[in-house]
Please model this.
Amino acid sequence: MEYIKSRVRDVFDFPKKGVVFKDLTTVFKDPRALHIIGWDLSQLYRDKGVTKVVGIESRGFIGGSILAFELGAGFVPVRKPGKLPADTLQATYEKEYGTDTIEIHRDAITEDDIVVLHDDVLATGGTMLAAYNLVRSMNPKKIYVNFIIELSALNGRSILPPDVEVTSLITY
Ligand code: AMP
Model:
């Protein structure tokens, strides 16, 4: 894990003043770090019968795809409005300034699925909570929540339902 940590780039004042952005492009471009991420993420879910990994646009698509591939599961994108071509379900949620909406294809998840929801970074948790509620409304057997990085000072974990297993590879 120290190797991955050493590859995370802190970008100050991005996307706005006062934010320290955890940039994972410097992890993903490093072949060894990418390999470790795939292995470590998949070890968390090896025996859980996962059938779908849901990745959140857009940085969640990278780790989410790798995790799905490693587990032999399918991959499902959660996207910003207007991007998915077929019939969708939507969730709108509060952001610091205004609201945001995310979408998933209505036929993406079935009641037989065991799902891992994945994003790169857990900050306030608002985005993941909205994605969780969206997937929950489709009644899969089980939902796990996963991040590569968790920013514990922002306490995003606390807004996710208490009975949901939330795992992060790296906590700051
Ligand atoms: P959240 O506040 O948890 O809803 O985060 C919103 C989105 O922005 C998520 O996809 C996070 O991955 C991303 N994000 C928020 N804060 C950071 C940060 N400091 N560094 C990197 N990504 C972030």
About this structure: The pocket of adenosine monophosphate is lined by residues 19-22, 56, 59, 119-127, 151, 156 (CB under 6 Å).
